[in-house]
Amino acid sequence: MNQKRSIKAAIILLMVFVTLSVQSQPAKTKAMTAEFDKMLSAQFKTGETGCAALVAVKGEIIYKKAFGMADLELNVPMQPDMIFRVGSITKQFTAIAILQLMEQGKLSLQDDITKFIPDYPTQAHTITIEHLLTHTSGIKSYTGVPDFQKYIKEDLSPAEAIDKFKNLPMEFAPGTKWNYNNSGFFLLGYIIEKASGKTYAEYIEENLFKPAGMTNSLYGNDKIILRNRASGYQTDGDKTVNADYLSMLLPYAAGSVMSTVEDLYRWNRALISYKIVKKETLDKAFTEYKLSDGKGTSYGYGWFLRQLQGSPTIEHGGAINGYLCNGIYLPGEDIFVAVFSNSNGKSPDLVSMKMAALALGKPLNYKEIPVSEDILKQYTGVYEDENSNQRFITCDSSKLFSQRGGGKKYRLRAMEKDKFFFEDSFTTIIFKRNESGTVNEAVTDDRGTQTIWKKSDKPLPSHVEIKLSPEILTRYVGNYELMPGFVLAITVEGEKIFSQATGQGKIEIFPESETKFFLKVVEATLDFVKDDTGTYSKVILNQGKVRMEGKKK
Description:
This protein is of the alpha+beta class. It contains 12 helices and 29 strands. Residues 7-23 have low confidence and may be disordered.
């Protein structure tokens, strides 16, 4: 009798445990959904440009919503299944297409690119397909040269576009350095055409989109009537405007794909179930490429390989006129997050990482501890990495700041002794001390990518602000063209003077002499120069290692 009661009691306890587990899971998902809503609605507000977002855990979509507007002119709200340009997320499709052709024996990753593009000037170097896949070719990226703006509206064929950049000087010997490179993936698209006998658009439609069940994905096309297309926008000072026109033939295999958040998730499932390429092939794409000196690149074939709260990630973002997108996958926990934005003024990168961290159960929630100003001042100085890039650590009113040479200033908050986190970021910095206790080094950790910064004896840059009359300030008012399509507008409001670059917000500048001004948000200066007539007709921008001259239009 006692045995029967014990068995019955055990069964009841088991039923209670199961019931509580089933009940707790929806409660957990509901709480997580509320937090996702809070994160996204704070950035993508009602009546403004919007986003679509998706979160999946272990093969199940637990969150799929949209916020903001898909079309501001027609007052169309964003919907979760709307189609966006995904920019450089395209690169993973290009990479997998190359790997498919490798599996078919139509190419080798060690093939010299001249096997498929015989007239390409490799400048006495051997440039392989693998170099293109890993951003280590040394070829200059065509989107980073001033002339790029001249032909963004032209419908160039792949061969015509390659002619625009193929004779540019190499940046480094192949395999010796990593530098993000759109030219490399453009060339991969052309190689896909040569090896397959199909256009790039045909190939990815037939061999990638269809097998993955991606019914709302396509090679970008502005001419066709496309249902559920989200309009693209950009910022112009304090205003939101329609995105500048870009021929979708130009981004090509480096950034031409259009898709939805759910289609990107379908792509993820098709890949990890080995429907598109074999496991051993996909493993190659998800393995960090090493440079010739053995250093890692945090990049595989078409994906960044990072960490989030200690868990490995496979991820990539996309930026193209009017759109910013991000997709991140945590293979160990089988968590997938995608957030697509239809404005270049609202990046989804941080919010998508926060969502993934929350789904992981390790939300971004660093706790600040108090540190005296005397201690904070011990960290100040100029730090340099192995490439002579500089980081300025400054202290102002008991607050510590970090600023890359020519970059924005970020607040640092203490979390442990000698360890700080960047405000609203997953990045941390640890200050190291020598045997005498003096700070002599800093190590930044950007989600698994660590950089060592040695403290130098160089003085921190300093600017002393002076007062200039509105009459003097108005001498510099005008539009200065720093490169084709990129203009710096100088305006005066009362006793203040402002600069505003194309597609960016208005920033106040401060005089340190009658003709030289500095910025406080970044380490940069503007020098105004007279011509022979005594008119200020030129400005010189110095920001970090960059020096640009702009003539008044």
